[in-house]
Design goal:
Distance between the termini of chain B: 19 Å
Number of domains of chain B: 1
Radius of gyration of chain A: 16 Å
Helix content of chain A: 10-25%
Structural class of chain B: alpha+beta
CATH architecture of chain A: Roll
CATH topology of chain B: Thiol Ester Dehydrase, Chain A
Order of helices and strands of chain A: EHHEEEE
CATH superfamily of chain B: Hotdog Thioesterase
CATH architecture of chain B: Roll
Largest sheet of chain B: 5 strands, antiparallel
Largest sheet of chain A: 5 strands, antiparallel
Shape of chain B: elongated
Oligomer: heterodimer
Strand order of the largest sheet of chain A: 1-3-4-5-2
Number of helices of chain A: 2
Number of strands of chain A: 5
Distance between the termini of chain A: 20 Å
Order of helices and strands of chain B: EHHHEEEE
CATH superfamily of chain A: Hotdog Thioesterase
CATH class of chain A: Alpha Beta
Number of helices of chain B: 3
Radius of gyration of chain B: 16 Å
Shape of chain A: globular
Largest interface: A-B, 33 and 43 residues
Structural class of chain A: mainly beta
Strand order of the largest sheet of chain B: 1-3-4-5-2
Chain lengths: 139, 132
């Protein structure tokens, strides 16, 4: 089986990235809410933790999976909460390329990547949140 | 609060269309480096008529309404984006109860002013009084 089928690096399925650490940032959360037309949040927004924060922290999915930005689409997100995360908490984030698939769409070939992120509260490493994001590459 | 039953509407709200400045703020707030949300020429080079609103903004709207109503009883939120959203397009967000048990399952629907569905999804909430 070839490592790459028409543009996505399929052999990376299962890859686990080195963990990185995050603390919720009130300033970033305020900008997020500003974008939504909401006042600055009192609590950490439910979807504050998002895969995008990994991009400058070593999880460079678009480069690794060979998804040029002009061909990228975001197909969906799933959040599963286990424990609340507060402003003073620090989390360890582990990203895994959970599933890669190629499909024939109405407009041509499409490649799908499901990336799973686990957010664990430090220091106990208690699972607080699981996020799955689905990226699409257009042919 | 009376018990929920299938068909109950949890919310049916409309968020005003987001301006380009709001899209830029959301990109900063989520550390999203994708120029497709802020750079008109780039968006056109990708085949779109203008910049795209972030899909995660739709998720964030849904998450905010659900978290406000249910707090830590909100267990999961699953959203599929089905059409691009452009600046200025208001979004109608509807959550309806689908089933009730130890968990309440809600169907989510998001649509643009012309009725085009832009996202759909499911939320799961722990029923009041049920063990989390």
């Amino acid at each position: 089986m070839p490592a790459q089928i028409g543009g996505m690096n399929m052999h990376l399925e299962g890859k686990v990235y080195p963990p990185y650490r995050l603390r919720p940032d009130r300033g970033l959360a305020a900008r997020m809410h500003e974008g939504q037309g909401l006042p600055a949040p009192a609590a950490v927004p439910a979807t504050y933790f998002i895969f995008l924060r990994g991009e400058t922290r070593g999880v460079d999915l678009f480069a690794d999976l060979d998804i040029p930005r002009t061909k990228a689409l975001h197909a969906g997100q799933r959040y599963e909460w286990f424990q609340p995360i507060g402003w003073d908490d620090e989390v360890e984030v582990t990203a895994r390329i959970a599933k890669l698939a190629a499909k024939e769409g109405k407009g041509g070939k499409l490649w799908f990547a499901d990336i799973e992120y686990e957010y664990r509260l430090l220091p106990a490493r208690t699972l607080a949140l699981r996020e799955v994001t689905r990226l699409v590459k257009r042919g | 609060m009376s018990p929920m039953k299938p068909g109950d509407v949890i919310f049916d709200v409309t968020r005003p269309g987001a301006s380009r400045a709001q899209l830029a703020a959301f990109s900063l707030g989520t550390e999203d480096p994708n120029p497709i949300h802020v750079d008109e020429a780039f968006a056109k080079s990708a085949g779109f008529p203008t910049v795209l609103q972030q899909g995660p903004m739709t998720t964030a709207h849904l998450g905010a309404f659900l978290a406000e109503k249910f707090g830590v009883r909100l267990k999961s939120l699953d959203v599929t984006f089905t059409a691009p959203v452009f600046p200025g397009e208001a979004l109608r967000l509807v959550a309806k109860v689908e089933s009730v048990g130890a968990e309440i399952v809600c169907a989510l629907a998001v649509s643009k002013p012309d009725g085009t569905p832009s996202a759909r999804g499911t939320a799961v909430i722990v029923a009041a009084g049920a063990a989390a």
